[in-house]
Amino acid sequence: MEFVRHAAGNLAYQSFGSGSEVWIFFHGFGQCHLDMLAFNKLRTPKQRYLFVDLIYHGKSSWNSSEKTLKKEEWKTILLSLLQQESIDSFHLVGYSMGGKFALLSYELLPERISSLTLLAPDGIKTGLWYSMSNYPSGIHPLFKQVVFRPKRFFTLVDGLKTAGLLQKSLVKFVKTQLETRSKRAQAFLVWKVLGGINLQLGTTIRQLRQHPIPVSVFLGEFDRMVSPKNLERFTAKVPQLKLLQLPVGHGQLIEATVSSLHQDQEKEHSSTYQEPTENPA
């Protein structure tokens, strides 16, 4: 692992390949860079892939939970990464929470980014983990009770599911993310430190319309958290955007996207490859 050093913490990442075309990958909540390594099978000799651990994930660190991440700090960290790796322009891929950071990075450095690939991105219609941190700070102790004394919370969630007010898949997702004390602590820190960042989608849409780089959005057909309707305020306003739904849920979307892109690669290769013809005698 390599690190970008910053006064407020360290950003960890792993690099593969040595090509001039650079792709940077951001994972989802509760994951680390390893969860995005499936994309590495798509890498060609001309490409270099950087898989990042977001703050409070993997080996990345943040010095104080009382210090929230500001946009300008993320820009500084990102610029340090680009300088450290001698990167001029790059492609961005983000899944779920990583999709929000991909959009944030584009908002801050639009002139440096060559394409955006978003998998069920958060931040367009605000998700659970972020909306909590946007409440007044006086409510944070209540969230802390949920994290460190979750029994009542889980009882409430089960009751809402039984009453038909919460979908089974959403309940399963929430319980998976909060099933251990360490995961609940991570969730609380993410709420406090990362959740206060709000995307300026209007600015992003204007930039994408004025300077139309390729934008691809992959969604899971059975994903109950991120749907085409959730993203409509963004996807409908970016003419070059390609939206593809795959027959999976939220948790299977990375592998399904890689499989879809791999099939596209093979089709492109077969269409450009021609059988050699024999020379006439």
Beta-strand residue fraction: 15-25%
C-alpha-based Rg, rounded: 20 Å
Number of strands: 9
Shape, per Cα inertia axes: globular
Say which CATH homologous superfamily of the domain at 2-126 and 197-267 is assigned: Alpha/Beta hydrolase fold, catalytic domain
Category by helix and strand content: alpha/beta
Q: What distance separates the N and C termini?
A: 58 Å
CATH topology of the domain at 2-126 and 197-267, anyone?
A: Rossmann fold
Helix content: 40-55%
Determine and state the CATH class of the domain at 2-126 and 197-267.
Answer: Alpha Beta
Which residue ranges are poorly predicted, with pLDDT under 50 across at least 5 consecutive positions?
none
Largest sheet: 9 strands, mixed
The helix tally amounts to: 10
Assembly context of the chains: single chain
Overall description:
This protein is 41% helix and 19% strand. The protein has ten helices and nine strands. The chain has helices at residues 71-84, 97-108, 128-133, 140-148, 151-162, 168-177, 181-193, 201-210, 228-235, 253-272; strands spanning 2-6, 9-16, 21-26, 47-53, 61-62, 90-95, 113-119, 215-220, 241-246. Strands 1, 2, 3, 4, 5, 6, 7, 8 and 9 form a nine-stranded mixed β-sheet that branches. Helix 4 (140-148) runs antiparallel to helix 7 (181-193). It starts with a strand and ends in a 9-residue tail after the last helix. The mean pLDDT is 87.
